[in-house]
Design brief:
heterodimer, A: alpha+beta, Immunoglobulin-like, 5-stranded antiparallel sheet, 39 helices, B: Beta-Lactamase, 3 domains, 9-stranded mixed sheet, 7 helices, clathrin binding (chain A), acetylation (chain A), protein transport (chain A)
Chain lengths: ~950, ~425
């Protein structure tokens, strides 16, 4: 006697038969008929024709029958709205039933009938139920508000249900609180800017209390809601953490992960030296490990989140490597995630274990997994230097297996290892070359070609090898074609005598027979380089390569922070910001990790992060759509000069070939040239009016051509006529510390404007974008007066010069030393910090000439203790030249007196913050040592003023 | 929240759908079918699938895909946990969770789903409460129901849902009051070729079967609670008491439930009860291979190892196996390429051995991958971690209950690499 019989009735008169049964007088028969109807509905048959008959059965005392009818109503009311009205009366009546179960059921079902007309009738019963004496009814009604909101949002607001719902957060029953929170959270999603869930310490306390007593699902809602709260200080944050921690031992993994989210976010606020901080870190590991023993689907979500956590706080799981070891019967999606985390956790301490595991995986069945394992070995070699040798030998072992895809993956990663550790493992090249024929994937072929080109001088038959690839040039993918082109050019530069023919062949293949603009451009560039200046070509093509970064596919820090705030959500599974989800995130606001109390560092970093996107001004650069056009544009920068200077000494027979190519190129050029060139100077002139903007636009120009700009060294020397001395640039941020970004710079004062001249060099493998800059508070309130003008992405190996105007209206804090400036530079990769020191002359203002009388009075006024004496040695200038020189830096000579063969210069300087510095300089004819006495009300600046004197006079 | 649920069988037939909000066309499942096809094996279907307007979150249990549809940002773990709960509820109600039983009880299934979620928010997921609302089918009841026309839906308000202990219903009465606890430990391990432990950990659970009248308040203590540093409790357990005294104090749900689960990590030394000596090799020529497996006891704490089964996943090219087992029987399935050797009880005096030759597809090259061995075993009366229950006390009620604790150790994901 089972329900499956309902599935088998497919007779023609079925509906008719059911109709008769529904109208039967016998209760049992009626119920049986309703059951049949429901079953048909379940399997997707259309039984809507029976609507009136089923609704007739609604007036019954039998609870099961009532429920079944309700089920039916929910399904079909939409298609029969007029009929559904018939049911309203029964609902309203049921909402006043003495049995709370019936009341709750009625209000619940009414909310599910998605018919506009019904909603009007729903309001009154709902209002009553929200204030019902029975918590079961209240909690059901709370959800009903969310349902109603989904159907008619305006109605809910007009009727004031939202306020009632907010009141329910303070309900005495924890389940009611949980449901109210859940309903409000859902409603809030469609109201991005409403502060429906306005959390304050009182409501937080209520929520924390309810957290202990409500069901597991309620706990998830409450925890997710807590995660949106910003604690006022670290103590509040600690007390919330303490009360949330027990949730880590919950059997429901969703509760655990939501608790992890709250803790990860709030612990950011705790001072790191706090004992509790360490305890908390320790407590986080076991629950995360436990998640990995759950069902595979849960494991997958957990692993995606652990991937984030490991990037943010690697210390939590650093001892738990083994739990990520892959098991034979793990589903593939779990295996791949585990592998990722293993590499992230790999360190010198555990590398041996990891390698042994990876080698084991490389013999597994699943091809995707094996490939990733082989890649992982390469990543380990790059990450942990000590293991590189072992990794290489493991890879060689794998190549010996001759399993095709293993060999190909191995070659791809060995290429990276070569780049990371040059001149160390080249002995394996011979083995690699043996496998040349078996490579059929573009990436592997490209890698192999790169290796051959890079080490052409060590491979005897490099030309033969490359030639063999050249035969099917047009069938290769772009990746391989580009690599082949470069490799042959490298080969030519290394062994020019034997390979002229080859290089000519590849150049003509790339430039004449190819439709691919990238390939053609690269071909032309090489061509021209080779024909104009082989030495330069050598420098360019065989230049030292920038470092490759150790960690691949790290998530950008600002995104990571946002994702940490969204642990356990879809965003965390996809590792994309919630705003990337079109449908699901109408109202998601960007969440940030709170700043740690008492440390300016993280606060500043978030500032920098925020300034990035919003401050980027629209690009003034013409569109880069046509790559070829750009290339021509660039070529013309040093116009025609290059063409006649084609080196006659070129040994290659490519001359005739070249001539023709260039002629035709030139023809094309002259047409487009006028427009392009005409455009840019006028732009420059427009900007030139504001001198501050000029260097910036100059700096941006080379970036237009992407990686090509540096070839022609457009960006070199921002030669601004200036009176004051500008120190040469020094390196402030080493590429090693800046994940490939090198920053050097200096300061200058030009026409009363303070400028910070920066040179940014990308020594990493990937393109850098989204630059922004921020200063820490400093002694004289220096702050950027505008955004950092890096308008185009900085491609690898590219350098760009930028001038940043500074103002002195920023926040002030005394630094040690006084002229120290702490700078944070952000790009798409990370935020980097460095500090530099500026000459105080930067702050000497133009109106610093003091009146003589005032000078005398001030000099006397300043107490003698404030006078400092210095010696400036080895200056061979007479007093007039010295005084002129100093004036260029806004150190003004007020009076000169000659006493006993000594020139006495009285000078004044005014700083941007209004401090006056007075000086007396004694110059004795024939004595290269000057004596300097400085008086100032703020004696700490004297030392730095002296340094400025020295700098100016000596340069 | 959870919008809709589709049940799909292994053949790709959609046999049940339930919508908690507006109806979503079943065509949304096409995205799932696409992913299903790509994954080849049903186990490998990714749990979260993105479609232009929805997200499909699915689990695969008992050859059925539970595919849920969500439209807004919902914690995926919440959905997955809920789906597992649905599957467990079906199992609980119908004895097994299969397409046939679901179809047989479709009305109850519908009623259950209706009670479990309201507008996508979980409503009643505790089996105790559900059983009060909707009585599980029994042969007797369905007979009685057909005769008398009475229903299997409860008439009363589920009282438990309102109290602060929602997991227990009021007014429970038994003539025999009993409380039994099973400590079940599973060893997850990976052993390498030479038999060294690459990784081993223990997953333990304490299953309880408590049939006590009234509102008993129990506390369970261990001889060596220090072993447990990573635990997850049933909501009934008072966490504070555990933190301060290492005692599990709780008012139990009625009937069967899982009191706690624990995890003894790879960092502690985990005893491995058996060792496996194996040699599986394939010849370069001749399309054949050889295999020799011996299993012996290692750290069994003086107990007997039972129900010993060795499963070998052979490479695809292995056609048949011609072996000789000194104990037990073996069976090679040439379709799934799985060799199962059912040994039974392990006799330390005479170690079981399986030896012989394997034949491969003629002309096929030597297989690239190494087969992997999975071990299944059971040891009665032993918790391999050494965990021991000290005592169980009952407060709040006057009668004297029967009490009992059983221990058993099993192999979980116990894998030997070759």
């Amino acid at each position: 006697m089972t329900d499956s019989k309902y599935f088998t009735t497919t007779k023609k008169g079925e509906i008719f038969e059911l109709k008769a049964e529904l109208n039967s007088d016998k209760k049992e028969k009626k119920k049986e008929a309703v059951k049949k109807v429901i079953a048909s509905m379940t399997v997707g048959k259309d039984v809507s024709a029976l609507f009136p008959d089923v609704v007739n059965c609604m007036q019954t005392d039998n609870l099961e029958l009532k429920k079944l009818v309700y089920l039916y109503l929910m399904n079909y009311a939409k298609s029969q709205p007029d009929m559904a009205i018939m049911a309203v009366n029964t609902f309203v009546k049921d909402c006043e039933d003495p049995n709370p179960l019936i009341r709750a059921l009625a209000v619940r079902t009414m909310g599910c009938i998605r018919v506009d007309k019904i909603t009007e009738y729903l309001c009154e019963p709902l209002r009553k139920c929200l204030k019902d004496e029975d918590p079961y009814v209240r909690k059901t009604a709370a959800v009903c508000v969310a349902k109603l909101h989904d159907i008619n949002a305006q109605l809910v607001e007009d009727q004031g249900f939202l306020d009632t719902l907010k009141d329910l957060i303070s309900d005495s029953n924890p389940m009611v609180v949980a449901n109210a929170v859940a309903a409000l959270s859902e409603i809030a999603e469609s109201h991005p800017n409403s502060n429906l869930l306005d959390l304050n310490p009182q409501t937080i306390n209520k929520l924390l209390t309810a957290l202990n007593e409500c069901t597991e699902w309620g706990q998830i809602f409450i925890l997710d809601c807590l995660a949106n709260y910003m604690p006022r200080d670290d103590r509040e944050s600690q007390s919330i953490c303490e009360r949330v921690t027990p949730r880590l031992s919950h059997a429901n993994s969703a509760v655990v992960l939501s608790a992890v989210k709250v803790l990860m976010k709030f612990m950011e606020m705790l001072p790191k030296d706090l004992d509790y901080y360490g305890t908390l870190l320790k407590k986080l590991a076991p629950p995360l490990v436990t998640l990995l023993s759950a069902e595979p689907e849960l494991q997958y979500v957990a692993l995606r989140n652990i991937n984030l956590i490991v990037q943010k706080r690697p210390e939590i799981l650093k001892h738990e490597m083994k739990v990520f070891f892959v098991k034979y019967n793990d589903p593939i999606y779990v295996k791949l995630e585990k592998l990722d985390i293993m590499i992230r956790l790999a360190s010198q301490a555990n590398i041996a274990q990891v390698l042994a595991e990876l080698k084991e995986y490389a013999t597994e069945v699943d091809v995707d997994f094996v490939r990733k394992a082989v890649r992982a070995i390469g990543r380990c070699a790059i990450k942990v230097e000590q293991s590189a040798e072992r990794c290489v030998s493991t890879l060689l072992d794998l190549i010996q297996t001759k399993v095709n895809y293993v060999v190909q993956e191995a070659i791809v990663v060995i290429k990276d290892i070569f780049r990371k550790y040059p001149n160390k493992y080249e002995s394996v090249i011979a083995t690699l070359c043996e496998n040349l024929d078996s490579l059929d994937e573009p990436e592997a072929r490209a890698a192999m070609i790169w290796i051959v080109g890079e080490y052409a001088e060590r491979i005897d038959n490099a030309d033969e090898l490359l030639e063999s690839f050249l035969e099917g040039f047009h069938d290769e993918s772009t990746q391989v074609q580009l690599q082949l082109l470069t490799a042959i050019v490298k080969l030519f530069l290394k062994k020019p005598t034997e390979t002229q023919e080859l290089v000519q062949q590849v150049l003509s293949l790339a430039t004449q027979d190819s439709d691919n603009p990238d390939l053609r451009d690269r071909g032309y560039i090489y061509w021209r380089l080779l024909s104009t200046d082989p030495v330069a070509a050598k420098e360019v093509v065989l230049a030292e390569k920038p470092l490759i970064s150790e960690e691949t596919d790290l998530i950008e820090p600002t995104l990571l922070e946002e994702l940490i705030c969204h642990i356990g959500t879809l965003a965390s599974v996809y590792h994309k910001p919630p705003s990337a989800f079109v449908e699901g995130s109408r109202g998601v606001q960007h969440k940030r990790i709170p700043a740690r109390a008492g440390s300016g560092e993280s606060a500043e970093s978030s500032d920098v992060g925020q300034s990035g996107p919003s401050e980027a001004p629209p690009a003034v650069i013409p569109s880069q759509g046509d790559l070829l056009g750009d290339l021509l544009n660039l070529d013309l920068a040093p116009p025609t000069a290059t063409v006649p200077s084609v080196q006659p000494s070129m040994q290659m027979g490519a001359m005739d070939l070249l001539g023709g190519g260039l002629d035709s190129l030139m023809g094309d050029d002259s047409d487009t040239l006028g427009g392009d060139i005409g455009g840019s100077p006028s732009m420059g002139a427009g900007l030139g009016a504001a001198p501050a903007a000029m260097p910036a636009s100059l700096g941006a120009a080379p970036a237009v051509g992407g990686g090509l700009g540096d070839l022609f060294d457009l960006g070199g020397g921002v030669g601004m006529p200036t009176g004051s001395y500008v120190a040469p640039k020094t390196v402030w941020l080493l590429a090693m510390k800046g994940k490939g970004l090198e920053i050097s710079g200096t300061f200058a004062r030009r026409g009363g404007i303070i400028q910070m001249d920066l040179t940014l060099t990308n020594k990493a493998m990937s393109v850098m974008t989204d630059f922004a800059i921020q200063f820490n508070r400093n002694s004289f309130g220096l702050a950027p007066a505008g955004p950092l003008q890096v308008l185009t992405p900085l491609s690898p190996n590219q350098t760009i010069d930028v001038s940043l105007p500074l103002s002195t209206s920023g926040p002030v804090m005394k630094m040690e030393p006084l002229n120290n400036l702490q700078v944070a530079v952000k790009n798409n990769i990370d935020v980097f910090y460095f500090s530099c020191q500026y000459p105080l002359s930067l702050l000497f203002v133009e109106d610093g000439k003091m009146d003589r009388q005032v000078f005398l009075a001030t000099w006397k006024d300043i107490p003698n203790e404030n006078e400092a004496h210095f010696q400036i040695k080895d200056i061979h200038l007479n007093s007039d030249v010295a005084s002129n020189k100093l004036q260029g830096s806004n150190i003004f000579t007020i009076a000169k007196r000659t006493v006993e063969g000594q020139d006495m210069l009285y000078q004044s300087v005014k700083l941007t913050n209004g401090i006056w510095v007075l000086a007396e300089m004694r110059i004795q004819t024939g004595n290269p040592n000057y004596t300097l006495s400085i008086r100032c009300r703020a004696p700490e600046v004297c030392q730095f003023v002296y340094l400025c004197y020295e700098l100016v006079l000596k340069n | 929240m959870i919008h809709s649920l589709f049940l799909i069988n292994n053949a790709g037939d959609l046999f049940l759908e339930k919508h908690w909000k507006s109806v979503i066309s079943r065509s949304v499942c096409d995205y799932f079918f696409e992913a299903r096809e790509k994954a080849v094996e049903p186990d490998n279907v990714p749990p979260v699938i993105r479609t232009p307007h929805h997200y499909l979150i699915n689990i695969y249990r008992e050859k059925i895909f539970f595919v849920s549809v969500i439209q807004t940002e919902v914690p995926p773990l919440f959905v997955i946990e809920f789906l597992h709960r649905v599957a467990e509820t079906f199992q609980d109600y119908f004895g097994e969770c299969s397409e046939t039983t679901i179809k047989d009880n479709v009305v109850i299934v519908y009623e259950l789903l209706e009670e479990m979620l309201d507008n996508g928010f979980p409503l009643a997921t505790e089996s105790n409460i559900l059983k009060e609302l909707i009585r599980p089918p029994t042969i007797l009841r369905s007979m009685v129901n057909t005769i008398t026309g009475s229903s299997n839906v409860g008439e009363t308000l589920p009282t438990g849902q309102l109290s602060t202990i929602p997991w227990r219903r009021a007014g429970v009465k038994y003539t025999n009051n009993e409380a039994y606890f099973d400590v079940v430990e599973e060893i997850d391990a990976i052993l390498d070729k030479s038999g060294t432990t690459v990784f081993a950990e223990i997953q333990g659970v304490i299953e309880a079967c408590v049939k006590l009248s009234g509102m008993p308040d129990l506390s369970l203590s261990f001889m060596n609670p220090r072993l447990l540093d990573d635990v997850s409790f049933h909501p009934c357990v008072r966490y504070k008491r555990w933190e301060s005294e290492r005692v599990i104090s709780f008012i139990p749900p009625d009937g069967n439930f899982q009191l706690m689960s624990y995890h003894i990590s790879a960092q502690n030394l985990v005893a491995i009860p058996v060792y496996v000596k194996q040699n599986i090799s394939f010849f370069e020529t001749g399309s054949s291979g050889r295999m020799d497996i011996t299993v012996g006891p290692k750290q069994t704490m003086g107990k007997t190892v039972e129900c010993l089964v060795v499963t070998v996943h052979m490479p695809k090219v292995v056609l048949s196996a011609n072996l000789n087992a000194t104990q037990g029987t073996y069976n090679y399935d040439p379709v799934t390429k799985i060799l199962v050797w059912d040994i039974g009880k392990l006799n330390p005096q005479k170690l079981p051995n399986l030896k012989g030759s394997l034949s491969l597809q003629s002309g096929a090259p030597k297989p690239e991958e190494n087969p992997s061995l999975n071990i299944d075993l059971k040891i009665q009366q032993l918790a391999i971690s050494g965990l021991k229950v000290n005592r169980l006390d009952m407060y709040g009620e006057k009668y004297k209950p029967f009490k009992g604790v059983k221990y058993v150790t099993k192999a979980g994901k116990f894998q030997v690499r070759t």
